[in-house]
Specification:
Order of helices and strands: HEHHEHEHEEHEHEEEHHHHEEEHEEEH
Largest sheet: 8 strands, mixed
Oligomer: single chain
Length: 408
């Protein structure tokens, strides 16, 4: 049999996030155990459903959704995204600059496939949403991880980022609000990142899928709104802000200077047309979502469900000896740190697998997000307060037992 290089590469780049704990969780479920899954931001399983008007719009247009659409998407969806970009202050965006995809995940892969040749480097934050690292690798590129500084509320370490730029660096990825840390970047940080891109003629990818999932009065600034002279591709979609993960409806917006980007844009058009089009029924949800009532605002208000669950999880975790956590300002996750003196974790995959075996709670290890140390995990705070409390009770019990076993 021929060497299945791509298959092996796919397994390699996805193993860290999939890992043995998820496989073991499936085995335990098959044995009849109930697992509290705090490992993935799949909102529907926790009772977060798409707004009714979005559902009605999809149903009402099903009879028009049986054929292929334009490879970039239906007109109403692209026009709505174009208007949204303008509302966010992103200037110079026309209909031809909008691409609709099967979620942001597909669009990231398309964007990397069109850009990268073997050996090209892309700057990706650490920690990151691991699909970025996987997409770069699978497209023949090399992901280069720049550190975000936990002591500075998980803002990017500009000095570290600069030190990682080489003649092969082609692009910079910015995830804001950040998954997994929940950091939201202020304007001076965004301007500093853009200045680096400007100096080194880097394409900027702005992953802004959580741009409305913000807490404590935090505001989000679209990166591309600050960069008319830098070529940016901004990503958004319905999965998180509109609780429509399964619809697989996302978009990317091209903006800024395109002087040297013609070949790349031609490549984007080719790879986009190769998959014919994004799923058409979900595209009919986009105009209603962006132009309708923003129900996410109720969920992230001071007394909203997401805020209450975030606060509960953060308060309980940080009350445990040896556990600290920067309080997230956005997104759906906590990224707590375990003091290595109190928790001498040599293998964080083994650590979360032990938690799963002992307490039937599933988390994701920090190294799965390309964090270089075995001292963090990601915790999803989507369960209602009763289930969240039960999960936190189990985590607290496991950590107390861990400390006792290790004499710390």
């Amino acid at each position: 049999m021929k060497n299945l290089k791509k298959s092996r590469k796919l397994d390699e780049v996805c193993y860290e996030i999939r890992g043995p704990a998820l496989e073991r969780a499936k085995e335990l479920e098959d044995q009849g155990h109930s697992i509290i899954k705090l490992n993935i931001g799949n909102l529907a399983v926790f009772g977060f459903n798409p707004p009714d008007d979005i559902v009605r719009d999809v149903i009402g247009n099903l009879n028009r959704a049986g054929g292929y659409s334009d490879s970039k998407g239906i007109y109403s969806a692209r026009k709505a995204v174009m208007n949204y970009a303008q509302d966010c202050g992103i200037r110079g965006v026309g209909l031809e600059d909008i691409y609709i995809g099967n979620g942001v995940s597909e669009l990231i892969l398309l964007a990397m496939n069109a850009l990268l040749d073997d050996g090209d480097e892309v700057l990706v934050p650490a920690p990151d949403y691991p699909l970025w690292t996987a997409a770069v690798s699978l497209s023949g590129g090399k992901p280069v991880h720049y550190l975000c500084d936990e002591a500075a509320d998980w803002q990017p370490d500009i000095a570290d980022l600069r030190a990682r730029i080489t003649p092969n660096t082609k692009a910079l990825v910015v995830i804001n609000p950040n998954n997994p840390t929940g950091a939201v970047y202020p304007k001076p940080m965004l301007e500093a990142l853009l200045q680096i891109a400007r100096e080194h003629q880097l394409l900027v990818f702005a992953d802004e899928i959580y741009d409305k999932t913000l807490y404590d009065g935090e505001t989000h600034i679209a990166l591309a709104s600050l960069a008319e002279d830098v070529f940016c591709i901004s990503f958004g979609g319905l999965s998180k802000n509109y609780r429509a993960c399964g619809y697989r409806a996302g978009w990317m917006i091209l903006s800024g200077a395109r002087d040297h980007a013609k070949d790349y844009i031609d490549g984007l058009n080719i790879v986009t047309s190769m998959r014919l089009c994004a799923n058409v029924p979900a595209q009919y949800a986009i105009q209603t979502a962006l132009g309708g009532t923003q129900s996410i605002e109720q969920l992230v208000a001071a007394d909203g469900r997401l805020t209450r669950q975030r606060d509960l999880a953060w308060q309980r975790l940080t009350a445990i000896p040896g556990v600290s956590c920067v309080k997230p300002k956005g997104a759906l996750y906590l990224f707590p740190k375990f003091d290595p003196v109190v928790y001498p974790i040599a293998d964080d995959q083994k650590f979360i697998t032990e938690l799963l075996e002992q307490e039937k709670v599933l988390l994701v290890q920090g190294t799965g997000f390309n964090w270089p140390h075995h001292d963090h995990v990601r915790v999803v705070f989507l369960p209602n307060t009763d289930e969240m409390t039960e999960a936190l009770d189990r985590i607290e019990r496991f950590l107390a037992d861990y400390r006792a076993r290790h004499g710390t």
